């Protein structure tokens, strides 16, 4: 199966004295849902930003199928328009679509995340989980092939966390998206096809999510005083 996301020997440092990633490599198969986990300070979010092009690596190469969507930990950092429909349409400006095509894309995307009835709802009136689904809808409207999610459940309650991860799982299965989800919540590993474990700026293990869950617990216990 071809890879939709490839990172080869990525390195990144804010300064020579502050290395974050050191020769980090991974591949995510097309049409699958993978997660990236690691202890605090392992470089997970930095790695995802390098994949998205938000940061430039000091060394290494990145390939992702295009277009790419990015979902931030805090959706308020990326929802910029006053209403749901306008925000989902915002990312389509560069595509020179007709108004009818834009309306169709927006309706399709909102329907995919089960929020079509909220198209006219003000953004400020949404719950945290709804805001994250609107951020995902923006990526779907642009027909993104790859979806990168940076701890998207970090600010959500337990029920909404599960609802969001199930939503992404369904999108991968039914729409053929490829998703890479950064997490520190080990229970979320129950919903993905595979996982990577990042430690000290490198992928030290990958594959079966349950085996990586056990390894992550070992790492956290080892760091506990």
Rg: 18 Å
What is the share of helical residues?
25-40%
Structural class: alpha/beta
Within the CATH hierarchy, at the fold level, what is the topology of the largest domain? Rossmann fold
Q: Give the quaternary arrangement of the chains.
A: single chain
Strand percentage = 25-35%
By DSSP (H or I, 4+ residues per run), the number of helices equals 6
Number of domains in the coordinates? 2
Shape from CA axes?
globular
Spans of at least 5 consecutive residues whose pLDDT stays below 50 are none
Strand order, sheet with most strands: 5-6-7-3-8-9
Termini separation comes to 43 Å
Please summarize the sheet with the most strands: 6 strands, mixed
Indicate the CATH architecture of the largest domain.
3-Layer(aba) Sandwich
Topology at a glance:
Blueprint lengths: L2 E11 L5 E11 L3 E5 L6 H9 L6 E6 L3 E4 L12 H7 L8 H14 L15 H14 L4 E5 L7 H18 L2 E6 L10 E6 L2 E6 L1 H15 L2
Parallel strand pairs: 3-7, 3-8, 5-6, 6-7
Antiparallel strand pairs: 1-2, 1-4, 8-9
């Amino acid at each position: 199966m071809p890879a939709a996301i490839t990172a080869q020997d990525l390195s990144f440092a804010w300064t020579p004295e502050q290395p974050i990633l050191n020769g980090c490599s991974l591949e995510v198969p097309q049409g699958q849902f993978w997660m990236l986990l690691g202890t605090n300070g392992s470089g997970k979010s930095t790695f995802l930003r390098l994949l998205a092009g938000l940061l430039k690596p000091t060394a290494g190469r990145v390939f992702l199928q295009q277009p790419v969507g990015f979902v931030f930990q805090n959706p308020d950092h990326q929802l910029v328009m006053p209403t749901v429909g306008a925000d989902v349409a915002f990312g389509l400006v560069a595509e020179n679509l007709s108004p009818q095509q834009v309306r169709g894309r927006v309706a399709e995307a909102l329907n995919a995340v089960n929020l079509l009835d909220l198209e006219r709802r003000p953004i400020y009136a949404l719950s945290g989980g709804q805001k994250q689904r609107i951020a995902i809808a923006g990526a779907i409207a642009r027909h993104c092939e790859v979806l990168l999610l940076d701890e998207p459940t970090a600010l959500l309650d337990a029920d909404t966390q599960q609802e969001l991860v199930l939503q992404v799982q369904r999108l991968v299965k039914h729409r053929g998206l490829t998703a890479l989800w950064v997490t520190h919540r080990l229970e979320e590993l129950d919903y993905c096809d595979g996982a990577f474990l990042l430690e000290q700026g490198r992928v030290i293990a990958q594959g079966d999510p349950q085996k990586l869950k056990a390894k992550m617990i070992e790492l956290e216990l080892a760091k506990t005083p």
